[in-house]
Amino acid sequence: MRKRKTTIESRTLKARWVFPVDGKPLPGGLVEIHGQRIVEVGSDSGRSDVEDLGNVAILPGLVNAHTHLEFSNLSKPLGEPGMDFVDWIRRVVAFRRQTADTSHEAIGRGLRECIGSGTTSLGEIAQPGWPVEQFEYADIEVTVFLEVIAPRVERVAPAMEVAQHHFDLAETARRWRPGFSPHAPYSIHPELLAVAVALLTAEKAPIAFHLAESREELELLHSGSGPFRDLLDELDAWDPTAIRPGTRPLDYLRMLESAHRTLIVHGNYLDDVEIEFLADHADRMAVVYCPRTHQWFDHRPYPLAKLLSAGATVALGTDSRASSPDLSILAELRFVAERYPGIGRDVVLKLGTINAARALDRDGELGSLKPGKYADLTIVGLPDRDAADPHDLLFNSNEPVLQTWFRGVPVDKDYKAATGGRAWC
Ligand SMILES: [Zn+2]
Questions:
Q1: CA–CA separation, 227 and 88 (whole Å)
Q2: Which of 178, 253, 308, 390 would bridge 170 by S-S if both were Cys, CB 3.0 to 4.6 A apart?
Q3: Percent of the chain surpassing pLDDT 90
Q4: pLDDT-based confidence at residue 384 (cuts at 50, 70, 90)
Q5: What total of structural domains would you count in the chain?
Q6: pLDDT tens-digit series, residues 146-173
Q7: Do both 22 and 145 map to the same domain?
Q8: Are 190 and 131 members of one domain?
Q9: From ligand 1's centre to the CA of 137, what distance in Å?
Q10: Residue 21: CATH number of its domain
Q11: 68 CA distance to ligand 1 centroid (A)?
Q12: Are residues 379 and 311 part of one domain?
């Protein structure tokens, strides 16, 4: 039988600025695409076959390392700014109970919002039983971290059965990738981490773990008491064997040390020794900073400069609409650029691109504009002015994301690939 010929499309895009991320920004830069991949990134040498996109920036597709899309129907965060963290958790638990039937619709809405704001790869925390088809047909790559809550030791074995099922389902997945999220020190028995690290190392898949997020968490770890203990008692979820007195986040980092890839989500209260530990393991442990979620609570200032100067891998996440105004990584980048004027703008851009891709173990394929990588692109409008540093045009601006390209194809306004796509919600 003769093989049918297929035409693989080639296109060359030109922009006022191209930000390759692993090299200097290119004025009047070109990105040449063949099929799903980038084949060339460079400067315009007078070629006539380019598509000039005008006064825009071409970035690698933005990567959001941490979301919970089940909250995407919220128009504003739960509670009030600066609220008590444990009270906020109570609201989250109540909200989940009320909205379990509509989480499918919220996830679809969240995926559309992410794509519309330029995100092409996502680390999503998912609940057991969610239909994974939503992630299979979206024009965005999703690492689906199955979340497990198992505060008592007797819940560890059933939780691992659910995890194994998730990895079995992933064997036939085309687009989504599996990950695992033992939720947080206050909601899982440490025995779960020990068995999860063994499974995830065998699967070469990432683990996401919320750690050092609040003062109340540190209090629970240190003394087994405080507002979290009250909450666990209320939920009949306290297991006296789960937390030994004097426990600290470092103990959990050590438990995760041999995992294939770990995302430490938040890390708001990491101490200097823990920051050094993360820097020493920067090749396989990343910290996910969720800037506007951090701002929502009354946390101490985020140790961003310290983490970066120590050499830790820091990625950005939006977290969910239960604590963030929206799901835009570009908005997070602009927030960080404004709040941390001492951090290089090129470094800021890495937080939402190559660093977040590295956190998800996808930096070989995503996160920078480089021949051989996927042609996942974010096209951002630029203001009508000049700047000494072109990053200033990107960050000191309200210009929106104009287009999101996924695997060499612009995603249309319904967020369905312009060619060959399939509706997914
Ligand atoms: Zn989270």
A1: 12
A2: 178
A3: 85
A4: very high
A5: 2
A6: 999 999 999 999 999 999 999 999 999 9
A7: no
A8: yes
A9: 24
A10: 2.30.40.10
A11: 6
A12: no
